[in-house]
Write a structure and sequence with these properties.
alpha+beta; BirA Bifunctional Protein, domain 2; 2 domains; 7-stranded mixed sheet; 3-stranded antiparallel sheet; 12 helices; 10 strands
């Protein structure tokens, strides 16, 4: 009969080693300590044990029962401790550094541009990205038969509804609802039918400015562009204007900044000219004033534009506009 006690002990040691959770632990308790468990069943064999072995058999069973209960209680306590720990913070563990979001480089540059022009007394205006033909073209002195429409590479939704090709329609809306004097900029997204490459995208960002009042001159335009160049890139940046043509301005010009990389000395980026093309500007065409009900005999004004993406590429030394739109964290986390 002592062999029976040893069999129960070995079976218990094997079973307890496979206990992984509370459910299997309860099964182990019932199997060995329950009313119909292994220990209780062994005690029912007492009448069959020879008289001279009954004492040692009973003592052996009691010792085994106590050992099984101790191991069961110890394992149960460990499961309870683990359960309590899952809801408690272990202050001894090293902290995990949280990921902090940051501005997209285009947003950061757009905000800087807005801050600069606010400092010059300009308001920041906004308008719809889906525009009518009137606001996107006709009010800007670009009638339906005008060849300048071919310059825009427009994305049409219907014959008279387009994805805006510039933010100039915002200028028209502001002039319709507000009497001069006006000093405003209109930053935003614009769209053109274009094949993506390192310097072109069918979706990009512009900011266009407008000032209307009495006795506004081309000299005022040159002064504001020069002041912006100094604020954005430094006091040593110069500006030059070249004659050009835009239907909504007369006279019209394109303006360049001295190269922000070589500071005008000539390098590979500026093709050794010392200058970098920025955008266009000019004095508001009288027909634009007439389209919004402003008397061109009483008021004059200037308008200018620039690409936010272009400014950001110059500011950060980026040579591919597509990097702004790929959402690559390796690129974005550099700013």
């Amino acid at each position: 009969m002592l062999v029976k006690i040893e069999e129960i002990r070995k079976a218990f040691e094997k079973d307890i080693s496979s206990v992984k959770d509370r459910a299997s632990l309860e099964e182990l308790r019932v199997k060995y300590l329950g009313r119909k468990g292994q220990i209780s069943s062994a005690f029912t064999l007492m009448p069959q044990v020879p008289a001279e072995q009954r004492k040692s058999f009973g003592q052996g069973l009691n010792i085994l029962k106590n050992r099984i209960e101790q191991q069961y209680q110890a394992l149960k306590a460990s499961f309870e401790e683990t359960s309590r720990d899952t809801g408690r913070i272990d202050l001894s563990l090293p902290g995990r550094k949280g990921f902090v979001g940051r501005k997209h480089p285009l947003v950061a540059v757009a905000d800087e541009i807005k801050d600069i022009f606010r400092g010059f007394g300009f308001t920041v205006e906004d308008g719809p990205e889906i525009e009518t033909d009137f606001y996107n073209f006709e009010a800007l002195n670009i009638p339906k038969t005008h060849p300048a429409r071919d310059m825009q590479d427009t994305l049409y939704i219907t014959e008279d509804v387009v994805l805006r090709t510039h933010t100039s329609p915002v200028q028209i809306r502001v002039m319709q609802r507000q009497k001069p004097p006006i000093r405003m900029i209109a930053p935003g997204r614009v769209y053109r039918r274009d094949t993506p490459d390192a310097s072109h995208s069918p979706f990009f960002h512009q900011v266009e400015g407008l000032a209307v009042g009495k006795d506004v001159t081309f000299a005022d335009l040159k002064g504001i562009i020069q002041a912006f160049a100094h604020r954005m890139f430094g006091k040593d940046i110069n500006v030059r204007f070249r004659p050009s043509f835009f239907p909504f301005t007369e006279p019209s010009a394109e303006y360049d900044f001295s190269c922000v990389f070589c500071r005008g000395e000539g390098c590979r980026v500026c093709k050794h000219t010392g200058w970098m093309e920025i955008s266009g500007a000019g004095m508001v065409h009288p027909n634009v004033f007439r389209a919004v009900g402003i008397d061109p005999e009483e008021y004059t004004g200037y308008a200018f534009g620039m690409g936010i993406d272009r400014i950001a590429m110059l500011k950060y030394g980026i040579d591919d506009i597509r990097l702004f739109f790929e959402n690559d964290l390796r690129f974005l986390t550099q700013f």
